[in-house]
Amino acid sequence: MPPAGVAVTTPVFQRLCLIGAGLIGSSIARRNRERGDLAGEVVVTARSAATLARVRELGFADRVEEDAAEAVKDADGVIFCVPVGAYAGVMRHIAPHLAPGAILSDVGSTKGSVIRDLLPLCPPGVRLVPAHPMAGTEHSGPDAGFPTLFEGRYCIVTPLPNGDPQAVEKVREFWRRCGSAVESMDAATHDKVVAIVSHLPHLIAFTICGTADDLSEETRESVLKFAASGFRDFTRIASSDVAMWRDVFLNNREAVLEMLARFTEDAHAFGRAIRWGQEEFIVDRIQRGRKIRRSLIERKQA
Amino acid sequence: MPPAGVAVTTPVFQRLCLIGAGLIGSSIARRNRERGDLAGEVVVTARSAATLARVRELGFADRVEEDAAEAVKDADGVIFCVPVGAYAGVMRHIAPHLAPGAILSDVGSTKGSVIRDLLPLCPPGVRLVPAHPMAGTEHSGPDAGFPTLFEGRYCIVTPLPNGDPQAVEKVREFWRRCGSAVESMDAATHDKVVAIVSHLPHLIAFTICGTADDLSEETRESVLKFAASGFRDFTRIASSDVAMWRDVFLNNREAVLEMLARFTEDAHAFGRAIRWGQEEFIVDRIQRGRKIRRSLIERKQA
Ligand SMILES: NC(=O)c1ccc[n+]([C@@H]2O[C@H](COP(=O)([O-])OP(=O)(O)OC[C@H]3O[C@@H](n4cnc5c(N)ncnc54)[C@H](OP(=O)(O)O)[C@@H]3O)[C@@H](O)[C@H]2O)c1
Ligand SMILES: NC(=O)c1ccc[n+]([C@@H]2O[C@H](COP(=O)([O-])OP(=O)(O)OC[C@H]3O[C@@H](n4cnc5c(N)ncnc54)[C@H](OP(=O)(O)O)[C@@H]3O)[C@@H](O)[C@H]2O)c1
Q: Which residue numbers delimit the Prephenate/arogenate dehydrogenase domain (chains A, B) (predicted)?
């Protein structure tokens, strides 16, 4: 009989290889350590010797491999958990070593670029099912993960138009077992939605911090002192990982630029209304903000 | 002997008149009800019959007056607690009735406009000391207030260049007794600082809600569904009071427009870097965001 808390259900994968062991990768591994229903064995690989050593110490992997090509051997599931800008390079390295029939998935914050970078290098028989767990914190690295990270959060799966339905269902089941509510959409829709709900807010937050940083010494001092009312909320989302966000902006370029253009047009219109004292326009904008907020509260997303 | 919890110190004012009984006004009155060291008597006036009736029910005022002109009579302290756009009209009405030697103060979120609107109408001998408690919630009205609202928050006093030092010290002491850390600066500096720490973040939050609201039906639906990652934080500050924010934007026009211009220039530069794949620029911006965030954490403002 298995010890209490260990699953009796068949794991989704026999051998799962996680490429990358940061916040997301280590959370997946920890989840399996706790419940055992994701994979019979979890093999972890990462880029640096320091991370590999730390993964060994933390003990959430069944096996740690230095070489990603070695790590993917005989794995029936492989999940990319590295910044999306690193996908192409890693894929070139591992592609020849992927097991026939393996399911290849990922957790990247952009999806069009992932298909662009992985699909052309996919050996025949390897089934690509991109995914994006909408869960995260401001922290990164193997110490940042925890097994409940994905609980109650959405995971968006973006199956290829001609993708294997069985492989898609396996990936969906994987994320359900991580505690997530799984949604499917095409990659282009995904990229537009995350551009406005996540990438543009981050771009704005990074930008306003820079704007504040460029103010005269005296004003900047006061900004830090009196940050409480609004600015502070922006800086919180601005404290995210550098490599991840660089890659997100560069790999969701079209959607981010489109949303940025729409937003700056709207911001200019707001500024113009302030300049010319157009009360009705201003009141309308404020009311729309409140309306959206109320919709979120009704949906319990606030 | 006074009952436990009631101050033995002399109150700052003998008779304090609060003009407006929303979040801020009612919090001041409640604070005095609890501690008694702000004023010997608190007279409250408000615009609508509904608010006046509610103030009577809630019982935080010693006296409720329908007519502001009646309310300010014989008060040695008068504090404007209404949206800044209403100051000029109210002041025209009460000015002839202000007691000689009275201290006239306020809690408005802009300070240049307050001096512009109140000072010319100040009768000789009435001493104007503008102030801005940096405390608030998303709620408004007489039910929203609570006596600890100002505790541990900054209050910025913006004395006039030739203001009476004794009157300034009284207002500073008033806010210290409200639990605030009191700072002084000139009105122009105040308006610039709040433009970037508070007014611009609100403008951005209102704007991005509108941008999202204008998306196609399908995308908007998804935005509400997947709001969790960044967007949600923006909508929280977008749920503030309409009249207050309309007045703030219209009455801090120059500073808000300047900060908006700086910000949109910076946002455009960020967009350009994404378009042309300028990694270094993007990394630099992200790092500055993190740096500002760290400064806030070090100052315990985060
Ligand atoms: N954090 C979030 O909020 C969040 C949410 C949803 C999805 N995601 C996505 O999840 C993925 C991983 O994010 P994370 O937060 O887990 O990041 P993380 O904590 O910074 O971990 C990144 C991992 O990728 C490895 N790595 C980094 N650059 C690499 C490269 N050039 N080549 C090979 N390996 C590299 C790192 O190895 P070393 O430690 O050895 O450098 C580390 O193991 C990203 O694609 C991100 O877009 C993140
Ligand atoms: N809320 C914040 O976060 C915050 C923070 C710091 C400073 N402030 C400043 O504090 C002041 C009051 O804000 P609040 O949050 O207390 O607002 P609130 O809760 O909406 O209350 C506003 C009060 O002003 C009265 N009022 C509104 N329009 C008026 C008009 N045209 N003429 C006369 N009276 C009018 C209202 O009377 P009725 O109820 O009868 O309509 C109500 O008593 C504003 O200047 C604001 O900028 C606000």
A: 14-302
